[in-house]
Amino acid sequence: MQNQITLNEAANLISTVGRDVTFMLVGEPGVGKSSILKTLEAKHGDAFEYIYVDCPVKDIPDVGMSIPDHQKKVLEYYTGAVFNLSNPKPKLIMLDEMLKAPNLIKLIFTRLILERMVGDVALPEGSMVFCTSNNVSDGVGDSIAGHLQNRLAMVQVKKPSADEWLNWAIDNDVAPEVCAWVNQFPRALASYLDGDQKDNPYIYNPKTQKGAFVSPRSLAKASYIVNARDMIGENSTMVALAGTLGAPAAADLAAFLHVADKLPTFDTLMTDPDKVKLPEDIPALLIMLFGLIARIDTSETFDKIMQVVDRVVHKELQTLFMTSVMRSSKAALVARNASFTKWASANAKYY
Q1: CA-to-CA distance for 240 and 232, rounded, in angstroms?
Q2: pTM across the whole model
Q3: For position 2, what pLDDT does the model report?
Q4: For 50, which DSSP code?
Q5: Strands (DSSP E) along the chain, which ranges?
Q6: How far apart are the two ends of the chain, measured CA to CA in Å?
Q7: How confident is the model at residue 17 (pLDDT cuts 50, 70, 90)?
Q8: In Å, what is the CA distance from 262 to each residue of 116, 225, 256, 286?
């Protein structure tokens, strides 16, 4: 039995039994736990009102307060605006960084977690609540008392592997230079919990942490910096990348950026796909191929792209290209394309 689940498995778990069970998704910093609310929204559409609660910065008035009703001479409980309980639509509430919240807020949220109640007011029928936080071993201020833990189902969220992250990155317009670097340096997405990463210079490690590190979150941020490097200049680019990914990762990624700046442009490749000079070294080819995946928009464009891909002498890189495309949102467009079926038939032993 595995002791971890993927982000997609966590979203499915919440979707399936989240009305009756409150899940606490626990994982190390930057692995994508907070993105699950968006995943659930994409899955369920307008079936819910989606509510994000940043627990560490909340205080009692943010949750609710007892207000005097002078006519009845009683105190009535008013809920915080964040829950929007005047709207009867079912809620899907994410209590983010729950285990970093002040102890009093943790106590107040126990009814929400167990009974779907904000104070004395019930959530609309069919509402769901889930929580996220870091591992206690991460050393970033998370703690939980026994009475709260017994109200939750705590599940460990797996840090995405390099391949899993690349599947996400391709569909989210991450810079091809960053994708190529992760493909070549997959240990940048290893976990300190794996037990054999003591000398890994890229990743978060609570025993040695002194600065920035590589995570799915920081890689996504690095993509914006990489895409803007022509405007901000080389020095600012490298300083910003070091402050986002850490100095070792930034130094390695710099070599990929220098290679990328010498590649033929997409327009050049599409104008003369059969004759334009292609790079020979692996990093350059990886950057080119990840960049081509991002530009697939029509069957005609894919035909021209395949003319380029067919000229790549490394069959394993062709296979990586095809596998990445078929795992992406572009798979439906490509699957019926004659260029794809021709390549797949000719390269069945690789694909």
Answers
A1: 10
A2: 0.86
A3: 63
A4: E
A5: 23-26, 49-54, 64-69, 74-79, 91-96, 117-118, 121-122, 128-133, 153-156
A6: 30
A7: very high
A8: 57, 18, 10, 13
